[in-house]
Please model this.
Amino acid sequence: MKDKINKILQLSPDLFNSFWNRLEPESIPKGKYYIKEGQYSKKLALITKGAVYSFYSKEGEEIIEGFCFEGCFFTDYPSFINGIPSKKNFKAIEDTELLVISKEKLDGLYQANPSYERAGRLMAEYLFTSWEMKLRDSIFSSPTERYLQLAANRKDITQRIPQYLIASYLNITPQYLSQIRKKLAENE
Amino acid sequence: MKDKINKILQLSPDLFNSFWNRLEPESIPKGKYYIKEGQYSKKLALITKGAVYSFYSKEGEEIIEGFCFEGCFFTDYPSFINGIPSKKNFKAIEDTELLVISKEKLDGLYQANPSYERAGRLMAEYLFTSWEMKLRDSIFSSPTERYLQLAANRKDITQRIPQYLIASYLNITPQYLSQIRKKLAENE
DNA sequence: CTATTTCATTCAACTAGTTTAAGAAACACT
DNA sequence: AGTGTTTCTTAAACTAGTTGAATGAAATAG
Model:
């Protein structure tokens, strides 16, 4: 996992370890919130075990934005970066173990060594470009197509996550997802 | 305009000027492409005059992602950052004047001074967070609501941009936008 | 200043996705 | 095991948004 992460950050082994040693363990029990909308997200969290999903709430409904599994960093970036209240929520799907670093400590690293500045830039660029791809995908493809892609490329999601959450992620009702699955099964 | 830009980049006056002096003028005539999908986007461009829009093409249709006006930086970021072919197009809506910097020169700056590294990070973070807001907006609001927001907050768009492009931006057909406008006008 | 193309509107028929409501299946808990 | 709870499926009625075709208005070219 460390290797996978440093592929993005491109830090020297020493600097990477120094970053890693500043991470502190936390845990979230299944079904519990880690961040609620309105709160300030002051920590960057890495999942070492478990799964978390992020969602907006609209009229009591959860509108799921994404899922995070082992090896994935998450935080509410607008809140973390700009110090504004978070507009979304993060909740554990399973019992989850984290390694976290506070905004202050991270800023400390940025100032301590330009390599961290660079790592921060690479991270933001990485997030930004993956974001673009997600947006493109959601514009381009119908729910059926997106479900097919998910089933093909993201077994981690389709196998670990209940269907009504997947429906919310695809931005459709569970009933409609059921209908899609039925049609796909018929055409086998 | 310079002030507005350096509010994001947070460079010292000297470093900002040094960056600014590396920019080179280019121009795009109305209706012409600046980047076509499949090409490599190797420059970051700032609009000093005119307007540009970016779009994906799907079965011959243009699906508009966004508009850029004076003071706005644009490039295909995934292509620019990761050196992959661009998946979208950029075309001038009006005769447009640019200031551009190549990826190589920008990387040169990053290496020359950590302040640029920091500016790059701030830029990527800024883009990333505005992206999130755009995505949230498009998930949350109906086309009618989004049109109302546009009409209220983005006169630059509704006044300068033809309606069929706005429809594409809202991800609806021009016919439906017409219908929306009619209904809104009736309820005045 | 007319001819041509491009843009905006209207309408009717259609399709994709929602809603409501009900039953079936899986799960959790003494 | 059996009972309550949560998840998944099915179906019918509905709504939002599309398609296609026709019409008029505006911009552009020659």
Summary: The domain at 2-133 of chain A is CATH 2.60.120.10 (Jelly Rolls). The interface with chain B takes residues 56, 58, 63, 65, 77-78, 81-82, 87-88, 110, 114, 117-118, 120-121, 124-125, 127-129, 131-136, 139-140, 171 of chain A (CB under 8 Å).
